[in-house]
Amino acid sequence: MNGDSGRAVLLAALVWVALVAVAVAVAGGGLGNDEAQYALGARTLVGDDGGASGTDPYPLFRPIGMRVLAAPGVLAGGGELALRLPFVLIAMGYVALVWRLAWRLGGLDAVAGRRAAVLAVAVQVSAAPWLARSGEALSDLAATALLLGMVVLIVEDVARARARMATWLGVAVAGAAAFHVRYGSAPVIAMLVVGALVTLRERRAAVALAGAAMAAMMAPFLWWSHVRTGDVLGVLKVSEDAANRAYVGEGLVWYATQWGWGMAGPVMGAVALAGIVAALRRPLPGPSPLPAPFYDLPLRRLLLATALGQILVLGLRAHGEARYVFFATTILTVLGACWLAAHTRPRLRQITLALCALSAIAGAVFAVARADRMNDRRVALMRASAAVRADAAGASCVVMTGTQPQVAWYTRCRTRLLGIEPVVAEAAAGFERVYIVAGAGAPRQPEDGAALSGPGVQFQTLVCGERPRWCVWKAR
Fold first, then answer.
1. Does the residue 130 lie in any domain?
2. Which residue range forms the structural domain that includes residue 132?
3. What span, in angstroms and rounded, lies between the C-alpha atoms of 255 and 230?
4. Domain end residue (candidates: 343, 371, 397)
5. In this structure, is residue 61 part of a structural domain?
6. Are residues 318 and 440 in the same domain?
7. Does residue 469 share a domain with residue 385?
């Protein structure tokens, strides 16, 4: 494989991801719960909160990094596609980082590195769980891209005879940025830094510098967390408390049972398993005349430990979702691709690429179909929210709902979490308009808003719709 063909594969992968991600962004329609939270945070950041600031039950979940990433979409009008397009570009950057990481990890000569990069990228863009999130305005992909940037810089430095302090400062910047985009990046960042201190003995001074710089860049967050919660780790604890798990280890069970489908997909799942085996093997004689970082056993073990560590930590503390462990699946895939590129026959690599092509097509169909199904679940709530916004006509308003972020975003009203108890007058005090909304497909929706009337607050039906069913009740 020559340089031109390698670049052609990368270009084809980037175009493919762009097409699938845009299709997912369009088919997804209305914003999901997490997307709406980030959009609300961005609306506040740019000074256009529309009276809807502080409307979701977990306002501390709006990291400044996601506010910044969502801000261009808000400034461009706040449409769903405008909010999601920056994340399409991030998905493309993610693929480019996978290419670079596999190239540098797999071999410093042109042939070995390019072979590993082609395999790694082909597997990445064929994974249905990853493609399904490529066009959503969520923190997972963006934070993982920054974590991959950390790893790329570490691998680049290991390939040199001596550490470069500038490179390790870049590691610190990427790590701090990943944390400020997604607080759940903290375990991976900690494992990378501590693991590098243990395994990369000749670079301990540089690693320590990176760790200190990262801590300095995170200090403002820790101070803010203390101000808001009384604990420097309070925001992280609040985030963990909101982890939607039924029991300790629920996530691990899901990852173990969904490895080859919901977590990674069949092709990526198989290559990732190969990556685990390859990373544990002792001396691997490289095929290239130049030493490749992949054949550095401590580095391989650092990457393996961090990837498996993410699965273990998040599996114990939260329910399982593929997007939570994108870093782990990608790192294991790159390790597997490096091994396949160096130690298998061309015929097996060709079969793997063919399977990737088939998986990519199937994955794209799955991703777009999933986005369309998610939109179907949101349509009713969006229609109810549109009815509220039209009726409120700019008056101060509050909406009682079981789905706060989306309703706050689309109505521009404040929201209150609706329970099973009647609405009391105190909850409606200070507002000109008071509503209850319900939409089929959304969680925690009331069957009859009028039945939730309480002392001093009497609701009556304002408007309802069918297919799917939705209703708005307004206080008299």
1. yes
2. 3-30+79-343
3. 35
4. 343
5. no
6. no
7. yes
The answer to the question of residue 21 being in a domain is yes
Q: How many domains does the chain have?
A: 2
Contacts of 468 (CB under 8 A, 6+ apart): 376, 379, 380, 439, 440, 441
Question: Of the candidates 405, 54, 70, which has an alpha carbon nearest to the alpha carbon of residue 228?
Answer: 54
pTM of the model: 0.94
Backbone φ and ψ for 465, nearest 5 degrees, come out as -140, 165
Structure-token pair, residue 350: 């060709």
Closest residue by Cα to residue 119 from 106, 128, 132, 133:
106
For residues 421 and 466, membership in a common domain is answered with yes
Q: Tens place of pLDDT for every residue, the chain, 476 residues?
A: 555 567 899 999 999 999 999 999 999 999 999 999 999 999 988 887 654 544 554 567 689 999 999 999 999 999 999 999 999 999 999 999 999 999 988 865 678 789 999 999 999 999 999 999 999 999 999 999 999 999 999 999 998 889 999 999 999 999 999 999 999 999 999 999 999 999 999 999 999 999 999 999 999 999 999 898 888 888 888 777 666 788 889 999 999 999 999 999 999 999 999 999 988 876 544 444 445 566 677 888 999 999 999 999 999 999 999 999 999 999 999 999 999 998 889 999 999 999 999 999 999 999 999 999 999 999 999 999 999 999 999 899 999 998 889 999 999 999 988 877 788 777 788 899 999 999 998 888 888 999 999 888 899 999 999 989 999 999 98
Same domain, 452 and 308: no
CA separation, residue 183 to residues 61, 187, 251 (Å): 8, 9, 18
Round to whole Å and give the CA distance between 138 and 25.
12
Domain-embedded: residue 195: yes
What residues contact 82, with CB distance under 8 A and at least 6 apart? 72, 73, 76
Please check whether residues 12 and 150 belong to one and the same domain: yes
- Both 394 and 468 in one domain: the answer is yes
